[in-house]
Amino acid sequence: MRKILVVGAGQSGLQLALGLQANGYEVTLMSNRTADEIRSGRVMSTQCMFHTALQHERDLQLNFWESQAPDIEGLGVSVAGPESQRVIDWVGSLDGYAQSVDQRLKMAGWMETFAQRGGQLVIHGAAVSDLDYFSRAYDLVLVSAGKGELVSMFGRDASRSPFSEPQRALAVAYVHGLGPRPEHPEFDAVRCNLVPGVGELFVMPTLTLSGRADILFWEGVPGGPLDVFNGVKDPGEHLSLTLELMERFTPWEYARATKVELTDANGTLSGRYAPTVRNPVGRLPGGGLVLGVADVVVANDPVTGQGANSAAKCAAAYLASILEHGDKEFDEVWMRQTFDRYWDTARHVTKWTNAMLGVPPEHVLNLIGAAGALQPVADRFANGFNNPADFEDYFYEPEKAEAYLASVSGA
Ligand SMILES: Cc1cc2nc3c(=O)[nH]c(=O)nc-3n(C[C@H](O)[C@H](O)[C@H](O)COP(=O)(O)OP(=O)(O)OC[C@H]3O[C@@H](n4cnc5c(N)ncnc54)[C@H](O)[C@@H]3O)c2cc1C
After folding, report:
1. Sign of the dihedral through C-alpha 352, 353, 354, 355
2. Ligand 1 atom index nearest CA of 38
3. CA torsion through residues 267, 272, 275, 276, sign
4. Residues near 67 by Cβ (< 8 Å), separated by ≥ 6?
5. Which atom of ligand 1 lies nearest, measured to the CA of 14?
6. How far does the centroid of ligand 1 lie from the alpha carbon of residue 144, in Å?
7. pLDDT tens sequence across 51-109
8. Separation of 7 CA from ligand 1 center, angstroms?
9. How far is CA 21 from CA 59, 105, 109, 131, 275, in A?
10. What CA–CA distance (Å, rounded) separates 123 from 34?
11. Per the database record, which ranges form the Styrene monooxygenase StyA putative substrate binding domain (predicted)?
């Protein structure tokens, strides 16, 4: 039986470990935290996942929370004007619903399932020296440790990483008591509120430890008025700041947030990181090779809510490559081909996400504006969150955007 070590129990590592286990591989999963520590720890993400990524979980019968999590049927965009009024406000319809399940709930539950099914779970924060040893004991070592210190084994790919600094300061608060959007009280949506030059506020429903909740997520341009969460340790203070900024920049979202309270004392998160693509193969001091997975090798800014989606897609692609490879050696050529298969999807995510971090060019403003009057444009933009490759056909180049708008408006 082939022996595989998976280091890091997040979206990609657990999905891969459970998928390999179901296919008869002998899998060891190494996590720096126990399931209880994850469950009782700090929130990690907003983790909104769209149809294709959710389907990968369904394919492995890992959609344990699907019936409890709110169905997110739309994705809306609002743009703030100079007086904090809304100059654009529309909602597109998703072809398949999205869902967000608090990673504390999901990762703890998946980890317990892995152990119950006979998987070997090792609670240990792996260091490079450990991996040196393990690379000799296993047929394959997969490093799915997110943006932690192990990324230092994988060199930065400068040609695919245009930024060397964080592009947004992140601040998340999980709350109970948010009112529905008055424009569509009958269905849930991710609401993207763009404040030009300042940042973005994302509001979305989730399933957390205490049931249905909503997430208020500010992404602030570094050094700007939203970049004020550094050093804020008190969760109550974090929520007050979040609400003050909503009242100032997005009063229409604040109007439904006046009665909110935090879901729990660990329901806030702040931080920042530079979006980075890395060389997928890590070479250990003793000569062994390890393959990087998901955020380890492609970490995009969460402004487009893609990281967990990409982690699910990466895990699905790697699982297929491992199964297809049978008993052959997992050598460097195979590792690079396996990453390239994932990069074929991930490159679209990286291109689109990096574009959304910049100042939007005029043709993009036209598209976003036109979506208010042309429902097919709103729907197409919303469904791009499920399949970012679609942006290639109408989003980046002014000529393609104009041709698309002309075709939709019948001009
Ligand atoms: C504020 C914020 C909002 C986000 N919102 C969204 C969203 O709405 N939609 C979306 O798709 N994505 C979102 N993301 C991104 C998404 O959460 C991540 O991209 C995704 O979780 C990455 O999965 P992963 O498996 O690569 O790593 P992770 O989920 O980070 O898992 C890595 C695991 O490895 C463990 N680990 C680290 N080092 C070691 C070690 N040395 N030894 C053992 N274990 C180790 C960690 O504790 C962790 O459990 C968001 C991210 C942030 C920060």
Report:
1. positive
2. 49
3. negative
4. none
5. 25
6. 9
7. 999 999 999 999 999 999 999 999 999 999 999 899 999 999 999 999 999 999 999 99
8. 13
9. 14, 21, 16, 21, 32
10. 6
11. 146-256
The CA angle 305-309-315, to the nearest 5 degrees, is: 150
User: What does the CA dihedral 108, 240, 218, 162 come to, rounded to 10 degrees?
Assistant: -90
Q: How far is the CA of 370 from the centre of ligand 1 (A)?
A: 35
The domain 72-100+167-271 having CATH identifier 3.30.9.40: the answer here is yes
Q: Give the residues surrounding ligand 1 with Cβ less than 6 Å away.
A: 7-13, 30-33, 45-49, 125-126, 144-146, 148, 150, 170, 172, 269, 294-295, 302, 305-309, 311
- Our mutation pick for probing the ligand 1 site, out of 6, 28, 43, 47, counting the most ligand atoms within 8 A of Cβ, is 47
- The fold adopted by the segment(s) 3-62+102-163+275-357 is FAD/NAD(P)-binding domain (3.50.50)
**What tokens were used for 341?**
């298969």
Q: For 117-255, where are the alpha helices, taking DSSP H only? A: 128-137, 235-249, 251-254
82 C-alpha to center of ligand 1: Å? 35
Residue 44 C-alpha to ligand 1 middle, in angstroms?
Answer: 7
Candidate of 295, 296, 339, 356 to mutate for ligand 1, largest count of ligand atoms within 8 Å of Cβ: 295
Closest atom of ligand 1 relative to the 293 alpha carbon: 26
Domains of the chain, by residue range, sit at 3-62+102-163+275-357, 72-100+167-271, 362-409
Render pLDDT for 262-302 as a digit per residue (tens, 0 to 9): 999 999 999 999 999 999 999 999 999 999 999 999 999 99
Question: What proportion of the chain, given as a percentage, has pLDDT over 90?
Answer: 99
User: Could you tell me if 71 and 204 are in contact, meaning their C-beta atoms sit under 8 angstroms apart?
Assistant: no
Q: Would you state the pLDDT for residue 1?
A: 76
Report CA-CA distances (Å) from 398 to 366, 395, 406: 10, 8, 12
Read off the tokens for 321. 């490559």
The CA-based dihedral angle spanning residues 160, 193, 202, 210, taken in that order and rounded to the nearest 10 degrees: -170
Probe residue for ligand 1, chosen from 6, 44, 52, 56 as the CB with the greatest number of ligand atoms within 8 Å: 44
Please list the alpha-helical segments (H only) found in 232-331.
235-249, 251-254, 307-325
In ligand 1, which atom is closest to the CA atom of 150? 41
Query: Measured in whole angstroms, how far is the alpha carbon of residue 56 from the centre of its chain?
Result: 15
